[in-house]
# Entry
Amino acid sequence: MQKPNSRQKHWHLLQSAAESSLSRRNFLRYLGSATALLSSSGCRWNFPDEVVTYLPEVKKASSEPVFIATAEPRSGFGVAILAEIYNQRPIKIEGHPETHSSRGASDAISQAQLLSLYHPHRWKNKDLNAEVLSTRVYDLSEKIQSRQGEETLVVLPVSTSSWQRRQIEKLKTQWPKARIFQVSLDPIFSYLSSTHEIFGESLWPVFDFSQVDEIFSFDADVFSDLPGKLAYARQFADRRSPEENDEMVWLYSLASVPSLTTAMSDHSGFLPQNSIERVIQTVYRDLTRDKSFQTSQKLNPEEKTATQTLKRYLKDRRKTRILIPGPTLSQTAQAQIWALNQWLKSEGLSYLAADELNLGEVKSYKELAKILFEEKKLSNLLVFTEDIVRHLGLEPKLLKRLKNIPNFLYFGEFQNKTSQAARIRIPLSHFMESWTDLKSYRGETLISQACIKPIFITRSREEWIGFCAQRKFPETRDFLRFLQSHYNKSSGEIRKRLQAGGPLSVLKLKGNPKIKLNPKFSEVSRQEAVFYLGIRPDPYLRLGQEEFNEWLQELPRPLTQLSWDNALVVSNEYAREHGFKKGDRVEIESFTGRKISLPVLPSLYLKKDLAYIYLGYGQTTGFWVEPFLPGPGTWSVPIQSVRKLKETYPLAVNQMQMQPAEVHPVIELSQEEFRQGSKELQRIHKEWSHQLKTLRDSEVLKLMLSGDVQWAMTIDLTRCIGCGACTLACQAENNIPSVGKRQALQGRIMHWIRIDHYVDENRGEKQMQFQPVPCMHCEKAPCELVCPVAATVHGQEGLNEMIYNRCVGTRFCANNCPYKVRRFNYFKFSKNFSQPEQLALNPEVTVRSRGIMEKCTYCVQRLQSKIEDPQTACQQACPTKAIEFGNMKKVSSKVARNRENPRHYPLLLDLGTLPRTTYLARIRNLREET
Amino acid sequence: MDSANRDRYFTFFFRVFALLGPIFLILALFGLSWSNNLEYATGEDFFVRQPVAFSHRHHVQGLKIDCRFCHTQVDEGEQAGIPSAETCMECHSQIWTDSPALEKVRQAYAHGEAIEWKRVNPMPDYVFFDHRVHVENDSIDCQQCHGAVETMPLTVQKEPLTMNWCLDCHHRAENFVKDLTPVEMRGLTDCYACHR
# Structure
């Protein structure tokens, strides 16, 4: 049947339908407005408010955002970012597209820096107070200088900044006898000492996964601990995609604590840390045939199999392999792995001199503790940012000594355990308010420029160090002059870098340093422990630097889905055996006799004799673990006994860990299965095209979808590493409030995109699977049918539109949504945006009130701005480019191609909702003979 | 009254109320909604007391100043923009330099403050209105929404600015827009076009 006029006919049909719905709308409008009028009893409904005029210094109230290139310090290294500035205030952070350190992506911590900039708990300075403080520091520094810096200890955080180094050098010339310590508890700096042990000089390792075929991780978490994690994740994902590579890169891991890396690895083994060290020793001895290595240690059966497997995998020397030591391993074990990499002549590994990165003088916390408690005379203690009391785990008795120091100054942004002990507290600027330079993980010099005037009249760390040295604050133009002379650049070049971002200069990578000393052999002690407790920095709060950040606190931790707390994570089997349930308090005792009481969180993805806990809590939420540790920088503690206590403790776990049952939300295939053609995917493809065909045949829908622009999203599960950047990018972009622990316990977290976790045991080995779930924007959306007030309707571009001002909060839609992606505002969570925090709100997005349903809008505010190929916030942030978004009617778009991909599948296909957000199946390598 | 009579009496009144009650209610609702569209409710033709008695008629019709001389941002951004005191003083530092009507402008200019003008054409917060997309390519004249501002000695709202009024144009843009060819016509009646 020919239908030349069917389109016209249906236009008329639609128009008349629109007119008939007009009367219904009229009715509703009359009803609504009548009630409004009744309640307002005849007031004018819109009271005249004030209009924003241009202020003289602004000239124009800009409604177009401006981007400023800057760099975020992370464990001392720089990550290149772009700050989106709207009317002179930063409202969003994105990765800088032209640097290796981010390549346009960002992670959860970068995204959340926006909140820490405007955080209401930041220390503030009033005009007068600032003067008083600088006068006091002035007097003190004069006094110290007169004694040439005797009895003085300055504690600084580790930084790759040359500007900070210059200020420290100035301070050293002024206070020659003072001890100036750059310390960090971050385990990554153990790389500097382990390379020193073997190469004779401190080196910083830079990995490159784009050339390698096999990656072996020994208790290293390359995707969340290392400063180069964004680049590593991207390189890994690019080598992982089955379309772009004939042979996907292999990732093996041997770990004591599960992490994103073990979750992404094809085969992972779990052993306690000392067993891993023993395995490394044996493998090193047997492969390199190092004669000096004699060990009488016997391996237990598990260690033996791990050793044999590793030796088999590594037998033939190949350049395309890379071994990555965990920064938490002992120095000896790390050194052995560097040596093994040399033996392999690995192409994926190069080094940078630590001194060129300004990391030449990094001291450990052990050295700091020694000085603090053995030095008899210590009258001046200046601590910058580092929370030494927390990291040293100082109990009240030891703290007393610190408190007795007459001049104890603390410079920081937030209250913490050290600031509570200090005599004078001095507020510091956020990195977005101050100027410095930083090096990225691979030696790119990035300028960290100010994006906003200091909100609370504060000064930066470098300025205060300079003030202590010269009793005069160095100014921005001093910094710019320093950049010119230090990097030997013209002012034009610097101006260009300030405008466009990107590296000012790049350090040269060293290929293969010579081994000067053979790695020493050391006996690894073995203890009969109940289990080995792994200690790790929290993936989001790090060592507590971000503890005040509610966005990061509320973001469910990968692998456990726990928010707002740290807990003793034990395996499910162990918990069942001892009758521990989620939230039960237990008291654990180490062999040194220290005790701590913690809540238990059973996890499916953990081996029986292992447990772990994250550091970084104890000031606002969670538990302070450091006092339990035998010393700072202990990353594995054997546990002597565990005793169950009577109390329980509520833990806000966002999702129950579960194994996929009949429904397979995540489709996982081995590479061979996929190349041969999977029957399951073929069945899905057939069913999907059938559903699409019926949709095309129904004429009304066909008309609805006939436009040139039809938005769609695909999420590649092979690429997704479950890092949580998308969730926080969405939170920052869409003004999503954090709800707090009490509401989180009720399951009322407002995130518009969540990451589901599944543990698959079908192939004998526990395999973690991640699945980000935003709104699916179904063609036949179940939510739209049940809304009594038509507050959620379909748009002509295929968006499932949620209209807040129309919603009356029946929650029928959330109930009818099979994907459970709708979030209800039970309370006026937007009240949580306090005064300075409101500056972070995106003016393009409504701040929702109480009683309103909300959900992912595909960032409609970005689609409506006139950018070619708009990106959603989650897509832009994703470090691995797992999320693709675009117009599926445009043949060249990535989304259109992905929807034709054989891996393509929709979630819950059998419901026939025809979602616009679809997935690409997860493909992994599978080695049969393990 | 015996009990049977009383029952009958109540039944009668119950029936009367049951019949007339809803009718009254519906009439009341319609009456109220009718009154909601009155100028009194929408705010049309109501003068808003402004800090400075500014006359558009004098400046636009009399002096032939273009709208965009002061509302510079109308084709660049969402807001048309209200000029700062600096813009006023560009002329008024030369003429009417000591007029008492301009005292507030001079004060604002001297102290670098903003004059707190009252909004004449209000939009609810849940509407994301963008001036730029409406005026670019000269598709819609300012007067189509703001009325003949050039004839107003004191500025008033001339159109109801209700959703129904917006939809008149969004439904049948060809009746209102001079030249439709350069205009991107997609999704004009989607809810997300204005509410998001």
Q: What stands out?
A: Chain B has nine helices and no strands. Residues 3-36 of chain B form the longest helix (34 residues).
